[in-house]
User: What shape does this take?
Amino acid sequence: MIPADVVFMPETPAHDSEIDHINEEAFGPGRFARAAYKIREGGPHERQLSFVALRRGEVVASVRLTRIAAGEGRALLLGPLAVRPAHKNLGIGRKLVAVAVEAAKKAGAGAVLLVGDEPYYGPLGFRRIPRGQISMPRPVDLDRILVHELVEGSAAALRGEVRHADMARLPAPQPAVREPQPA
Ligand SMILES: CC(C)(COP(=O)(O)OP(=O)(O)OC[C@H]1O[C@@H](n2cnc3c(N)ncnc32)[C@H](O)[C@@H]1OP(=O)(O)O)[C@@H](O)C(=O)NCCC(=O)NCCS
Assistant: This one.
């Protein structure tokens, strides 16, 4: 059961350094090589859809959501999710996922995507996305790409490589203009 002194709230810039520390502790330097990290490098996360758990004023857990695009589809990428070791197995991780998904729903998102363990996220409403439907900018175990559909059809609309939504707005590279050649 979640202890009564744990408070959940949207993150603010004041939480950033503690969140960085929590992610470093949970994932180590290897986190920079992960597919989800590469996507998140493409732009900012959604501060108002990202949450922390505070216990006696200390940030003990964090979850972030980031806007993504895959083909015509749009969704939110959940992660990183991390709970400080001393506060694990109290239900804080599950609660943070539920809070983030609820916020995504209220914001009108069609789906929440993540790379994670099905045994943990399955009971929270996530299911595997069919193999081959989407890809990631770095190698990833396809069975760990999970989606929580909030609006019918939104998961099926995700096709091809997942990118930060800001990247999808960039104009496609134009072919080089060729100088007219003498006949
Ligand atoms: C995974 C993590 C977020 C879970 O947070 P938490 O607050 O401890 O989890 P909860 O208290 O909500 O849930 C605990 C339950 O989930 C289970 N669980 C934890 N990690 C799991 C995993 N990877 N796969 C399956 N079950 C898992 C626990 O065994 C426990 O089961 P029980 O309720 O039957 O005893 C936390 O362990 C963590 O920060 N891990 C390191 C970073 C990480 O792996 N993040 C997830 C990336 S996908």
The pocket of coenzyme A is lined by residues 26, 81-83, 88-94, 116-117, 119-120 (CB under 6 Å).
